[in-house]
Design a protein that fits this description.
With 355 residues, the chain is an alpha+beta fold. It has 18 helices and 6 strands. The protein has 2 domains: 226 residues, H-NOX domain; 104 residues, Arc Repressor Mutant, subunit A, CATH 1.10.10. The chain is globular, with a radius of gyration of 20 Å.
Length: 355
């Protein structure tokens, strides 16, 4: 890979070392983005990295991960340089095992796609700190749900579409068969043209939905993985747990926000005891560690509620009273007061500016 070779040559993660940045992205995934943009020949890898304010070897002297904020800049530069209105889909189509760090090799050892989906949910943080996966059964199928952690994620549409397209692409790579989703839900509005979405996903996505997700049928989930190895999987799973624990030591706030979002999506406003239990911490320890990071539990809950509020308002389909209820507010008036404190205007006024 011409654009990604220097990224992939970085030294491996040093276990036990404190992370220098709280959230990072695997260099292999970044290399996939770079290669997708530079393949057309309109810009070189060095030029693209420079446009994002990154040196030609952005991880030189560190480990095989790049800061999350730097990757956001790279996405913005990639969209500007490529002019590709479906860049996320095209990045997702290019993924290979090396795109996913240790997770890629772990998935190759799974017995079936159903098992690989479960491991993806557990270890997606190995690839990047921008979001987490969840799942929900429907009949014998499974919804694979992607939840970005940032309220205003730069290039959100393209990054979400890249993740979901990558899931299908890699499923096909694992099984040696073309894999298509039964249904695809996307939170953002439909772009002007959706032919590429139909080609990549195998169906017409439903836009403006409550979550970003794809439904895999039972017959697809039960497909075997060509290179399955139970013995190797045990070894790789232990390595994945250890590596993710190293990353998570510097990522407590992201873990808290992800857990809060799961609770809000399930229709409840979580207490500190619930989130602490989900993270295997005592409430006192959780509060202390958040304080050490310059935050607090209430601040993290409010950050998640604000981000979800902006997303739901931007989508434009839900009544404001329904959004208030979903975010755990006692009534619409309380939601109005909170949102005005966040954005300096009412939810209705902000919605008009955002849409």
């Amino acid at each position: 890979m011409s654009g990604g070779a220097n990224l992939l040559s970085l030294p491996a993660i040093t276990r036990g070392r404190k992370m220098s940045a709280p959230r990072t992205v695997a260099a292999g995934y970044v290399a996939t983005l770079v290669d997708a943009v530079t393949a057309a020949g309109r810009i070189s890898a060095a030029e693209l990295l420079a446009a994002a304010g990154l040196p030609p070897d952005p991880g030189q002297g560190g480990d095989r991960r790049l800061p999350h904020d730097a990757v956001s800049r790279l996405w913005q530069a990639a969209l500007a340089a490529s002019g590709d209105g479906d860049l996320g889909l095209h990045v997702g189509e290019r993924v290979r095992p090396g795109s996913f760090s240790a997770l890629g090799h772990l998935l190759m050892s799974c017995a079936s796609l159903r098992e690989a989906a479960a491991e993806t949910e557990r270890f997606a943080g190995l690839v990047g700190g921008g979001g987490r996966f969840a799942s929900r059964a429907e009949g014998d199928g499974l919804w694979l749900i992607y939840r970005p952690l940032d309220p205003d994620w730069p290039c959100r549409r393209h990054r979400v579409e890249a993740v979901l397209a990558a899931a299908l692409t890699f499923a096909g790579w694992l099984t040696g068969q073309a894999v298509r989703a039964a249904r695809v839900h996307l939170r953002h509005a439909a772009p002007p043209a959706t032919a590429e979405h139909r080609r990549v996903f195998g169906c017409e996505p439903a836009f403006g939905q409550a979550e970003d997700a794809l439904l895999l049928p039972g017959a697809v989930l039960d497909l075997g993985v060509a290179q399955a190895s139970a013995g190797l999987k045990d070894v790789l799973a232990r390595y994945a747990r250890d590596t993710l624990a190293d990353l998570d030591r510097g990522d407590l706030r992201a873990q808290v926000r992800a857990a809060v979002r799961v609770a809000l999506d399930a229709g409840r406003l979580p207490a500190v005891t619930e989130i602490a239990a989900a993270l295997h911490l005592s409430p006192r320890t959780l509060q202390r560690r958040l304080k050490d990071e310059g935050s607090g539990f209430a601040a993290e809950v409010n950050a998640v509620r604000e981000g979800m509020a902006r997303d739901l308002l931007r989508d434009g389909a839900r009544p404001i009273a329904e959004i208030a209820y979903r975010l755990g507010f006692a009534d619409t008036a309380n939601f109005h007061r909170a949102f005005k404190a966040w954005a300096g205007m009412t939810p209705a006024a902000w919605r008009r500016t955002a849409t």
